[in-house]
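I have a small job for you when you get a moment. Would you make up a two-line entry for one protein for me to read? No commentary is needed, just the two lines. Write everything out right here, beneath this request.
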Amino acid sequence: MPLILITNDDGITAGGLKELVSVAREYGDVLVVAPDSPQSAQGHAITIERPVFVRESDVFGPDVEAFECSGTPVDCVKLAKSVLLNGRTPDICVSGINHGSNAAINIIYSGTMSAAMEASLEGTPSIGFSFLDYRADADFTVCRPYVARLIDHVLTEGMAEGNLYNVNIPNLPADQIKGIKVCRQAEARWVEEYVRGEDPRGRPYYWLTGKFVNEEPRQDADANALQNGYVSLVPSHHDLTNYKALSELQEIEARLQPPESGNSAGQGNKKQRLEQF
């Protein structure tokens, strides 16, 4: 039986995680390692200044091996690999199902996607699932057919190099979702501001707010696919290199060197100055 590692960032009692575990159990043995409290927007943070505690959890019943962790989503994956898997290698890691979108720039901030990315760094095919419904009582059952299909596809067909899918599911009735669209990441962003307030002692505090702005014209971008009623699937990667800028900079690399970086002219000028003393 395939071994499926499951995690999230909304915490071990989250409804999306419960739905994900329910689906994944149909495809293999599962190991759940999730935060003991909500850890949204933690990105790829890890815990290094305090110990991380792990304890067994029976939240999914006696037939599911599960642990809750005091650390971040990435901590959960690291502990699974180093401690809890006991030398076993998962065939796939699935993370989520997250409350809210992780499309476009949100992948950078997302604990859900960072946990999946951490597993992918170890060579494990990984999928992060997100549902565009922020309500505490969100009905995740609409996600089931897409979660099931993609888990089955990866276990059966494997995954191309990169090992990471970012999957977002629109908040629509099941019969209004048009299917899965393979996409690029949208060039969309948050326009942010901080609202100032004061606590009862008169000390100022700031609350981050903002709005999501999508000015992406390409219809094959994830944010637009979601707006058009599709599930977006973006093959993602940890490599943040800007390859267009890389080739441009390589062409002028010599011009970027400081005068005394080791070239012969710089060395000669340095020698002349030293001889003056």
The two ends are 76 Å apart (CA to CA).
